[in-house]
Each structure stands twice: as C-alpha cells, then as structure tokens.
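so ive been stuck on this for like two days lol. basically i have the seq below and the ligand is zinc ion, smiles is in there too. i just want the complex predicted, nothing fancy, no docking runs or whatever. if the output looks off dont worry ill sanity check it later, just need somthing to start from for the group meeting slides
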Amino acid sequence: MLLGLINDKNRARPSFTGQRAICPFCKGELIAKCGDIYINHWQHKALSDCDSWKENEGEWHKAWKANFPEENQEVIITVGSEKHIADVKTNKGTVIEFQNSSISSNTIAIRENFYGNMVWVVNAALFVENLKIRSVVTHQLKFNENAFAHELDGSDAFYDESIQRYKEQIRDDKKKNQSIQWKLDSENGNLKSCLEASQSFDNFYEEFIEKLYLSALFEKVPIRNIHESIPDELKEKYKMCLTEIQSLSNEKAESENWLDVFSKYSDFHSEEIDYKIIPATVSFSSDKFANIYAIKKNELSTMFSNVISFRSKTDFDRLKSNPNYYFMTKKVDFEEGRKSKISNLQDQLDLLSQVRIDLNNEIKSIAINQLEVCSNACKNRIKELSMEIKKYEEIIGNLTESITSAEKSKVEDHEKILKTLEFKQNASDIEIKRKYKGLYLFEWKNERKSWKDSQKTIYFDIGKDYLFEIYQEGCLKKIDKQTFINSHLI
Ligand SMILES: [Zn+2]
C-alpha cells in the first residue's frame, strides 16, 4: 500500500521507516517501510481483513501505481455493500488494475464485473519467453519485397526465354549451314575434276574408255555422268567391236605362230616340189589325207625316194601308224593357206579398226559435250549452295542481332521496371508502415488461458519502455509506456 491516513486525515506516502498511519480501507494500523531498494510504502502491522483482492504487492506493482497522481492511486470503490481498492482510478473513471501473478478466469470475470470500466496491465516479463512476437510491418515489407522481386524476375525470364530460343535457332541453322558447306566442298571438288578433265582431255578419255564396260556406280564425277549419258546400245556396239578385234587378233596371231613353227620343220625336196616333214609329235586329222604325203624313212636320203599320196581316208589310215614312214605336206599348200587366212583376218581387222575409230569418235563427242554439261551443272549448284549459305548466314546474323537487342531490352526493362517497382514498393512500404505501425503478430506458447476470457483491454508489460495491447486475436499493438500513462492523466 502506497498511501496511508496520517493523523486520520490525509492520505500520504511514508517519509521514514517506523512511521505510523491508518489503513484507509480497513482502518487497521500501518507501519512505514522505507529504504533504497524498494519504494517507500505502508504495511499492515498485523494480519488483517483488509481488501481480500489485494495480494502482497511487489515492486513492479508499486512502481506502476506510483506513475499516477496520488489522488488516482488506491481508490476505494464501493458498489452496493461491496468495496475494493482499485490500483488506479483515472479522472475519467477508468480503473487500471496491475496484475503480477496469474489469476483464474473466474476471478478475472468477477473483478471486471465489479469495476466495469477498466483495463488490465499484466506483468508479462514473467512469461515473455513464451511470447513469439513478430512485427507486422517487417512481415508485410518482406512479403512486399518478394512480390516485387517476383515481378522483376518475370520480366527477366521473358527475355531469357527469347534469348534461349534464338540461340537454339542459331545452333540449328549453323548445323544446316555446315551440311550445305559440305555439299559445296564436294561440288567444288567435282568442278575441279571437270576442269582437270577438260584440260588434259586425252588422258582423261583414255582412263574413261577403259572403264566403259564396268559399272559406273562407284565412279566419281564427271566419269559417272559421262558414263551414264552414253547410250547402252553404243556401249554394247563398242564392246562387241573390241571383243571381235581381240578374237580376230588372237586368231591371226595363232596363224602367224603356226607359220613360224612350220618354217622350222625339216625340208624335203623331190621332183621340183618342196615338202615339210611333219614332226612325230604333231598330230593331224585323217580327213586331211588329200594334202598329206608319205615317204619311207630309209628312202629319205637316197636318190630314189618315192613320195606316196593317198586316194582315200582308208588308204591313209592304213599307213598312218606305221613308224617306218615320215609324213609330209607340200610347203606351198600350207603356207599359201595360212597366208591367205592371215591376210583375210587382217582385212577384217582393218575394217573393225575403222568401226572402232568411228564408235570412239561418237563416244568422245558425247564425252566432250557431257563434260561441258557436267561442269555447268556444278557451277550452277555451287552458285545455288553459296546463295543458300549466304541466306543462312544472314539469318544467323539477324538472330545474333536479336539476341543483342533482347539482352539490351532485358537490361533496359529491368532498370525501368526496377525504378517503377522501387517507386511502387516505396509507396507500398510507406502504406504498410502507416497501416501496420506498432502492430505485431504474436504466438503465446503455454498460453494462460484465463486471460482469453477477459472482456476488457489487456496490456502486456514485458519490462521495456512500451506496452503491448492485445489488439485482436493473435495481434498486438505497441504503445509507448508514457503515452499510455499520459492518456489516463486527462
Ligand atoms: Zn487495510
């Protein structure tokens, strides 16, 4: 108790320890307690039936009451037959009760009912550990910042997507360009082959004509093109001509060979006729009996040799295997026959040679013409491919410019949006600070449920120079302690 009745008259604070006074409520005797540690106050001398609502007041309690004018402290309020001491009663009639310890919801209800117009100040320093308090402004500002950052990210992402798309297009176009470049390289190679073929056409043609029988499937330009442009009929004719020439040449060589072999046979002369003795190793057909002659071996070097001729095949066959005879042929018969054959073959070969020259000229003329066609086609392809490459290079150039432009726009828009956003965010932040100033979100672990049922305004004192008013469910409002006190001094 801060105020006692001194000399039964005025309520006053004690001025020295041991001073005596009377309790204004129960009229019991009071003894003063003064010191440096605690606020000077009165204590009942004996246990008394003073106000049952008043507990042993701690320093916190006394200090709060001392903040108000003495006439507002420890005011006795009487309702009907019941009376109690209000901690503070303001001039406006509001009772302020300072609650240090926890009390039941029933007690709270009874006191609120008794005082009517009242507020509570609760010593929350005792359970501040259980209060989780977050500034609404901080919370909202953070939320705001995220929202604006998101908007900025959206703008950046829009450009990043475009840039990514351009890059993919460039990659695709470069691939296409590369494959055209390969075609161009190959076409340049073809043109080079065509030009080389034209420059040394004879060498080229020689190589070409040798491959005329073979498939052109694996040949390169221009051999393949020329090959394909020569009619099959012409190829066939040329091939047949060569085959025929080869065959006749072989036959002629064979005959010439025979003549040579024959000339080495032994000579025999009789009655103005030259014979050639056929060696035993050479076999001949019985059908040729009319041109075969025989002579006894032992007559060969005598003056009286008898040359035998045959009238029939049977006649010949009778002597054919007789080892005592040489068989001969007239030199002139054999040589004339052979020479005439060789001459005949030569005539045919001369004819074929002319045919071959004609065919060759026909093929050569096609080849010359086709070589020109082929190199012109190459030049046209090269022109087309070069244009295509140029086209893709332009596209790639444009895409590269688009990327540069998008990157520039990204930076510009970023700055522009950032500026706008900063402006908007500042305005919004100001609005938030204004709207939510002094408001706090709070969670109360191990909540003292009795306070939940209170119908009156509750202030938490957590031992700082401000109070928290329970503003609404889960929400606190900060109020400066002095402001709170001042508001109740009017
Ligand atoms: Zn008393």
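The mean pLDDT is 92. Residues 231-360 form one domain.
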